[in-house]
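Tutorial, part two.
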Amino acid sequence: MDRSTPIKLIARSYTEDAYGVLQPTKSERTVYANVTSVTGAEWFEGGRNGLNPELRAVMFAPDYQGEEIVQIGPVEYSVYRTYHARTDVLELYLERSKGVQTPPPAPTPEPTPDPEETP
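Running the prediction step on this input gives:
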């Protein structure tokens, strides 16, 4: 199996600051997985249960430590289900994280007019 796609596993936790306010802290690590689309049956069943299944990441099971967020490229996904396929293989089923938007493309700069061409 091809496990050549780097993915980031992100764990979020909260620590209390000096004022007693919980501040989010994030730790991430990069692992390698085989990323594919979910099957039609998975997509259909997920939709019936209020989910929006998009991707499946197949990875080495000991690499996963219960993280709930997976970043593939610039997009963050939530892990909604895991499945131990074989002894050393784990499948993560992912949906697009709610409230996390894909960053928009950088704006194309307007060309500056040539002063010699202006009337």
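DSSP finds one helix and six strands in the chain. In part three we will examine how such features are distributed along the chain.
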